[in-house]
Structures are given as structure tokens and as C-alpha cells.
Amino acid sequence: MATPAKVSAVEEITKDFQESTAAVLTEYRGLSVAQLKKLRRALGQDSKFSVVKNSLTAIAAKEAGVEAFDGQLAGPTAIAFIKGDAVAAAKSLTDFAKDNKQLVIKTGYFEGKALDANEVAALAALESRELQLARVAGVLKAPMSAVARVLDALRIKLEEEGGAPAAASEAPASEAPAEAAEAASDSAPAEAAEEN
């Protein structure tokens, strides 16, 4: 018979699965409390690294519809539930595992897709969301500044050549010949008067 504490634990783990975009299953045998604290800090505020009971986690995963951990729940288990940037969290986990051999990354999932340990490492090798956004911003900014430089160069060139003011250059092409003809006819009588 399930105790209230076990029911509550299953509910909490189920909620963690449901609210996470990614999760990584690890074995943490031999890590000290200080090392676990360091790992939690490295993962950041958008991730939760929880030591879990395998039997309760199996029930919670089933309730949450997560199949990635089937057959993987053995030994001392901890799960990184990731709500923020999955790439940054995966990088923090893999970097920590390189320095602390006691942490073994077993499997994971990202946006519903199961990942093996190699795929978690591949996820960690991607660029973080912040870096991707910075690159996109740079790409978007570059053409705008290039357009601004071209327009500025064109304005300077027109000024140097004594070009017409912007308003006059925007006049329709059909009006320009008529204005030139009027100016010519106005100047013709004046020239004839000067000759007489």
C-alpha cells in the first residue's frame, strides 16, 4: 500500500517531468554533498537536480508519458530536470562529468525525444540559445547598417555633385520636361528684349 509520502513524491516527480523540456538521467555514486551542490549551482536556476528513488521515478515517468528512462532506472539515480536552455544545462552536466568521473550520464530526453549518453553529449556541443540569439541579432543588424552606409554615401555623392534637393528629385518624371519647357519659353522673350 502506498504511503502519503510516496504518493507525494510520485506527484512531485511527475510534475517535474511535465514542466521540463528536457531531463538527463545520471548515476551519482560516490559524489559528495559538496560536489552535488556545485553541480546544482552549475546547472543554474532553470534546472533541478534531484536524487530520486527508482521505483517511484518509474511510476512518475509512466504517468508523465516519458518512456526514455525505461529499463535505465538502476543504482543511485539523480535526474536533471531542465526547464530553461537544454544546451547550456547539458554542457554543464557533461563538463562536470569530465571533471568528476563518479557522475555517469546514462540517458535523457529533449522535447519528448529519447537521447542516449552520446546524444546528450552532442546536445551539449551545440551553441547555447543565448549565443544563437546573439548571432541572429548580429545577422539582422549587419544588413541594416550596410544599407545605412550605402544611403549615406549616396547622399554625400549627390551633395558633392550639386544634386537636386531630395524633394525635387522625388518629382514625377512626366513633370520635369514640362517645367524645362516653361523655363525655356520664359527666358526666350527676355533674351529677345535684351538684343533690341
* Binned strand content: 5-15%
What general outline do the C-alpha atoms trace?
Answer: elongated
Helix % is 55-70%
State Rg: 35 Å
Mean pLDDT: 79
Number of strands: 5
- Number of helical segments with 4 or more residues: 8
Main β-sheet, spatial strand arrangement: 2-3-1-4-5
Q: Tell me about the biggest sheet?
A: 5 strands, antiparallel
Describe this structure in words.
The structure is a single chain. This protein has a five-stranded antiparallel beta sheet with strand order 2-3-1-4-5, sandwiched between helices. Residues 167-196 have low confidence and may be disordered. Helix 4 (86-99) packs across helix 5. The protein is α+β, with helices and mostly antiparallel strands and 196 residues long. It has helices at residues 4-19, 33-43, 54-64, 86-99, 117-125, 129-160, 166-169, 175-195; strands at 22-27, 47-52, 77-82, 104-110, 113-116. It starts with a helix and ends with a helix. The longest helix is centred in the last third of the chain and has 32 residues, at 129-160.
Helix-strand layout with pairing:
Layout: H1 4-19, E1 22-27, H2 33-43, E2 47-52, H3 54-64, E3 77-82, H4 86-99, E4 104-110, E5 113-116, H5 117-125, H6 129-160, H7 166-169, H8 175-195
Antiparallel strand pairs: 1-3, 1-4, 2-3, 4-5
